[in-house]
Amino acid sequence: MRAAFASSFNDADPLAGLTVGEAPAPVPGDGWAVVDVRASALNHHDLWSLRGVGLRPEQLPMILGCDAAGIGPDGAEVVVYPVVFTPSGEVSILSEFYQGTVAEQVTVPAYNLVPKPAELTFAEVACLPTAWLTAYRMLTTKGRVEPDQAVLVQGAGGGVATAAILLAQALGARVYATSRDASKRERVAALGATALDSGARLPERVDVIIETVGEATFDHSMKCAKHGARIVVSGATSGHLPKVNLRRMFALQLEILGTSMGTPEELSALMTLLANTGVRPVIDSIIPFSEARTAFEKLHSGDVFGKIVLDHTT
Ligand SMILES: NC(=O)c1ccc[n+]([C@@H]2O[C@H](COP(=O)([O-])OP(=O)(O)OC[C@H]3O[C@@H](n4cnc5c(N)ncnc54)[C@H](OP(=O)(O)O)[C@@H]3O)[C@@H](O)[C@H]2O)c1
């Protein structure tokens, strides 16, 4: 079957190790199901994989991709929940231990198939299992956001960030979002949030901060937090060792909360929220599978606003 996979690692030039070509079709184990993928979506995680983060050379070739939606074994339309336990009981995301989703087919435990709501397209639901699920859990389970509270989203162009902007608004919050890029700030404003340059002073302190940028923005996140605020961290794109002002942390009783992905139940709740509110993922582009390399190049360029989706029917 055709697939996009990491055939080697290259930290400086991650795309050097990307191969788009033929890979063996998956053989499902007991209790596992094969999904015919209709759409997949890319994540920053795929670039980490091509750099060798979280993978060992003996695992190569590894099909990339955490996100997919398609047709399950009984013909049902499904979304693939990407978190799978390894035989030794460790948590892994597809493409870390088991083969990923940027392929004609993917196999996962049957438990990982979540019904796709009819209101959402394959391209839309393919955006959800990693970035949108992470953003949903950051705001709800971890951030405990309430209507009329204020939320700051750092690095607004990213997949998690654009998801957080729209979901926070759907949950009734006032949203501020920072970006280094003026054109991204315009697009953030069009989504209904107050767009600010990275590091800019906010008109008010906020209740919840969505952090995926890390070192470059963390001090600003601390300064924007009001008493009792939750700074929720799911990524550190710019570096993972920021200085933390502990005096501010205890004086303002701030909570710094780490989180990864979410549960299948949270994925279902997220899809219900989208179906009921009409909110839809921001899709940067839908690219035919036959041009998969272009999609990875776009992700790597950083010139992205929202999710890059691969259409597996073309
Ligand atoms: N733990 C989890 O479950 C989980 C799930 C999904 C993602 N993640 C992680 O979360 C992070 C975000 O992933 P993503 O796929 O949404 O998008 P991404 O490609 O990492 O983009 C994130 C945004 O970060 C900002 N950024 C990058 N470098 C920066 C810098 N030096 N200074 C300031 N801002 C910078 C950019 O915003 P602007 O250009 O707008 O400034 C960019 O749009 C990644 O590190 C990823 O690994 C974790």
TrEMBL record:
Protein name from the UniProt record: Zinc-binding dehydrogenase
Q: Where is the signal peptide?
A: none
Q: Which Gene3D superfamilies match?
A: Medium-chain alcohol dehydrogenases, catalytic domain (3.90.180.10)
Q: Could you tell me the keywords of this UniProt record?
A: NADP
Which residues are in the Enoyl reductase (ER) domain?
13-310
Zinc among keywords = no
Keyword field contains NADP: yes
